[in-house]
Amino acid sequence: MSPAAAWCAQHRLRFLLPSLFLAPVLFFLLSPPSPPPFVSLPAPGRELPPSGSRLIWAQRRLVEWRPCGWWRTAPVQAPSRRNGYIRIDCYGGLNQLRRDLCDGIGVARLLNATMILPKFEVAAYWNESSGFADVFDVDYFIEQTRGYVEVMKDLPVEIASKEPFKVDCSKRKGHFDYVESVLPALLEHQYISLTPAMNQRRDRNPSYAKASYCQGCYSALRLNKKVHSKAVELLQAIPKPFLSLHLRFEPDMVAYSRCAYTGLSSKSMDSIEAARGEGRKVLTGDAARLWRNRGKCPLTPSETAFILQALDIPTNTNIYLAAGDGLMELEGFTSVYKNIYTKSSLLAHEDFENMHGNTKAALDYYVSVNSDAYIATFFGNMDKMVTAMRTMQGLQKTLVLSRRDFANYTAAGLAGEQLAKAMWDVHREEYIRGRGSALPEYCFCEFKL
Ligand SMILES: *[C@@H]1O[C@H](CO)[C@@H](O)[C@H](O)[C@H]1NC(C)=O
Ligand SMILES: *[C@@H]1O[C@H](CO)[C@@H](O)[C@H](O)[C@H]1NC(C)=O
Ligand SMILES: *[C@@H]1O[C@H](CO)[C@@H](O)[C@H](O)[C@H]1NC(C)=O
Fold first, then answer.
1. Which of 290, 406, 408, 430 for mutating ligand 3's site (highest number of atoms within 8 Å of CB)?
2. Ligand 1 site-directed mutation target among 82, 107, 112, most atoms within 8 Å of CB
3. Do 206 and 239 fall into the same domain?
4. Distance 345 CA to ligand 2 centre (A)
5. Looking at the 3D structure of the chain, how many domains does it have?
6. Is 79 in the pocket of ligand 1 (CB under 6 A)?
7. What is the per-residue pLDDT across 18-36, written as a single tens digit (0 to 9) for each?
8. What is the percent of the chain with per-residue pLDDT over 90, rounded to a whole number?
9. Whose CA is nearest to atom 3 of ligand 1?
10. Which residues form the signal peptide (predicted)?
């Protein structure tokens, strides 16, 4: 039995046993005259569904996402001609780098260009110099993209001494056509570096470009040997089964959200103030309320603990915190869920000290992709990659918490048991309908169960 299945079985028992023992007692107590027994139970609305468990993962799903079949075999159409060489330049943290790289793979094939290994330009914030090869397995990438897009490890002599012509699409807004706007520069210079656009619609691309994107992003990227073995070591150190939780409540995150919070410690408030730059002023009044109700405010650790309890995730669950070191108000979570594991608690001290931000992010990524269950409190770049990669592996215990619904119900005055019930209903619905657990993009298809 897999750890996940064992976990499930164990929980089914945990819920079945008490109800089996209680059933005759309840029946005796409630039988005369004859209201349906569950109406008189305490905790209105928290009745057991037929499966016998209120644990979120025990709910029967109606739909799940799987990788679509059409892109799993290389497109037969080879490029009609080669238009030049493209290096994809990626900026930011690991998951943002990866998102840009994924887009770039699709664009390279769209333009019938040969890809040079991407350049990872790490933001100063991360203080490091990890290149593509420092994180990912280069040979595997080349092998897995064969037939989709041509990738070269070393520059051919004729361009080896040249600097590529820079094409920066990162600030481009709205839909634009890469063939129209980038191909001319590629043809003219023969070697360009490209920073892909942030929010480009990829669904209009021809299928060979889409297939390259899907294959390159979801089947060709794996951690290199060194990072992988560190990640495996970490994974093995975590007691099983476990849930990986991506908490986001760092000062910069909160400052950036422009949301107001009450009840935070003065230490947290100071850190948030320190992270607040120009243009990040706290919203007030109606604007603040609307913003919060649109789900723009990060969940606090204690709100997260509340929702996890509403989903009946036992408080003795082993939880790996996939997060940086800067989380605030963590006691709000750890006072409820006590079996918490982190990188810094599990890895040897000097190992951890010597690690770059991207390597740390790669560990969180790996552990989260391989955990029994994954819950995200936000839907950022990491969550998009993790949920998609879990979907690739058929790991379905994946959930993104709804900040919008939490805010909305809280604003409507719900609290305590009522709020818990509302959170349960909303997330159960999301879970069984397979929403929010995979990228709703063309690489994945809905599958009715
Ligand atoms: C790329 O090659 C395909 C054939 O695979 C062809 O249909 C398309 O027009 C080419 N695009 C460019 C920009 O050269
Ligand atoms: C960046 O990393 C180097 C070592 O890799 C270290 O000496 C330096 O203090 C770090 N800078 C910051 C701002 O963290
Ligand atoms: C907020 O909740 C109300 C019910 O309390 C519902 O009618 C409305 O659609 C919700 N809005 C959003 C954005 O979820």
1. 408
2. 112
3. no
4. 22
5. 2
6. yes
7. 343 444 333 333 333 333 3
8. 65
9. 79
10. 1-27
- Name every protein residue with a CB atom under 6 angstroms from any ligand 3 atom: 293, 404, 408, 412
Residue 129 has what pLDDT? 53
Per-residue pLDDT of 224-271, as tens digits, reads: 999 999 999 999 999 999 999 999 999 999 999 999 999 999 999 999
Nearest alpha-carbon partner for 329 in 405, 264, 240, 395: 264
Global pTM? 0.84
Cα 136–139–144 angle (5° rounding)?
90
More confident residue, 189 or 204: 189
The finding on whether 208 has its CB within 6 A of some atom of ligand 1 is yes
Q: State mean pLDDT over 156-177.
A: 88
- CATH number where 400 lies: 3.40.50
Same domain, 211 and 229: no
The answer to whether the CB of 174 falls within 8 A of the CB of 162 is no
Residues facing 67 on adjacent strands: 444
